[in-house]
Amino acid sequence: MGKSVEKTVDLLRKSYAGKLEESEQREVDRLLSDERMRQLYECIGDDEYLIREFRRYDAYLPDRGYQAFCRKIRRQKMSRVWRRLSVAAVVLFAVGCGWLLMNRMGTTEPVVVATSTVEHGNYRAYLQLSSGKRILLEDAEQGELHEAEGSVRVDSGKVLYATDKVSQSLNTDAYHILSVPPGGEYRLLLADGTAIHLNAETELRYPVAFTASERRVFLKGEAWFEVAKDAEKPFVVETELGYVRVFGTEFNIRNYAIDHEIKTTLVEGSVGFLRKGDRAEQYTKIEPGYQIRCAEEAGSRPEIRKVKVADEIAWKNGAFCFVRCSLERIMQDIGRWYDVDIVFTEDALRQMRFTVTLHRYQDIGKLLRYFEEAAKLQFHIQGKNITISRK
Q: For the chain, where do the domains classified as CATH 2.60.120.1440 start and end?
C-alpha cells in the first residue's frame, strides 16, 4: 500500500479505537465528506455486515490466499478493532471495495421518507452570560464577546476563556451556562485550561474564573472532560445524583434524566464519585478503564465495572457505539442527536437488542438502514417524527 493509503487506514483505525487527536479528527471528517469513503467507513464499522459479506465473497471467489489469511488472523487472536480494520485494509484496498459497496447499495430498500427535514447534529449551543443575556452560537461562528466579567472567544464550535483575560478580582458568583440543544454538540475551554466536549441535550453551568478553593461545575446531560491539573484546587462536577471529584484527569460523565442513572467512565487519572446525601469520606474511586454507575433510586449504591473506554466515549469521536443495547435506548441517543421524536408501533420492538458502531455524521436514512437489514424493521420519517414498525 502507498503512504496515503497507510495513513488513511491508520486514521480509521484510531477513529474506531477512540484515540484521534483534534487535528486527526478534522482529517477524518474531511475524508468522510466523500460519499464513497463514508460508505466504506460504515461498512468497516458494521461487524455483522462484514461477516455476512465476506462469507458471500468467499463463496463467490474462494481464494486460498484469503482463507490462509483468515486462519492466520484467528491464530494470532488479534483484537476486534485491529481485526476489523486489518481485514478491511487488506481485502478492501487490495481487492477493491467496489464489490462490497455494490452489494450493500444494491440489496437494500430505502427508508420510507415523507417530507423529511432530518439532519445530523452539528455545533450549536446557547451561551447564557451572568447578566442573563442569552447568545446563540452556531457552527462556524467566530468572534469575541466583551462582557463585564471579561472577554470570551467563540471560534468554530468552541468557547474559550483565557486566564490572562479574566480578572482575578471577579465576584465568584459570575457564572455562565452553556446549553446544547437536541441536534447539537459544543466544546469549551475553561479559564483553568480544562477542556470539555458537551453532547446533545446537555447543560453545563460554570464560573468564569476559578477563584474559590475548588473548581466546581454543574452538569446535566453528557460531557467529556480533560481536567487541567491543579493539586491545590480539586475539580468537582456536580450532577443531580452526586459529585465526581478529580485533581487532573480525562473522563466522561453521562447523566441524562431519561436514563435514571449516572455513569462516569475514567480514561486516565483518578476520579471519585459521591452520591448526594452521603458523607465526604464515602467517595467511591476507580482506575482508568473502569466505570462508576449509580441508579437514581433511593438507597442505590455505586457499582464499579470494567468497560471498553473507546465504546463509552465514541460519541466524542464521531460515532455511535452500542453493545447489546435495546432499540429503545439506541433510538433515544439517535433521536437526541438528530433532534427527532421516535414512535414504536409495538412495545416488543423496544426490547430488541443490537451491537453496532455507526457514524454520527451520516444521513439518517443510511444510518437506519442497518436496522432494516439486521432485523427487518421499517422506519417511516415524516418531518421530525420517525415511526418504527415491522416489515
A: 122-311
Instruction: Supply 253's cell numbers.
Output: 460523565
Q: How far is CA 27 from CA 16, 55, 81, 162, 192, in A?
A: 14, 32, 20, 27, 28
The C-alpha R_g of the chain, in whole angstroms, comes to 23
Q: What is the pLDDT of residues 229-251, one digit of tens each?
A: 988 899 999 999 999 998 779 99
Cα–Cα distance, 154 to 178 (Å, whole number):
12
- Tell me what the mean pLDDT of segment 89-93 comes to: 48
Position 228: which residue type?
A: A
Instruction: Please identify, in words, the CATH class of the domain defined by 112-118+317-390.
Output: alpha beta
Q: Is 249 helix (H, G, I), strand (E, B) or coil?
A: coil
Euclidean distance between CA atoms 358 and 323, whole angstroms? 12
CATH 3.55.50.30 positions along the chain are 112-118+317-390
pTM of the complete model beyond 0.85: no
Indicate if the pLDDT at residue 362 is higher than 80: yes
Adjacent-strand bridge partners of 204 = 178, 219
**Range with the lowest mean pLDDT among 60-74, 165-179, 316-330, 350-364?**
60-74
User: Which fold is adopted by the domain 122-311?
Assistant: Jelly Rolls (2.60.120)
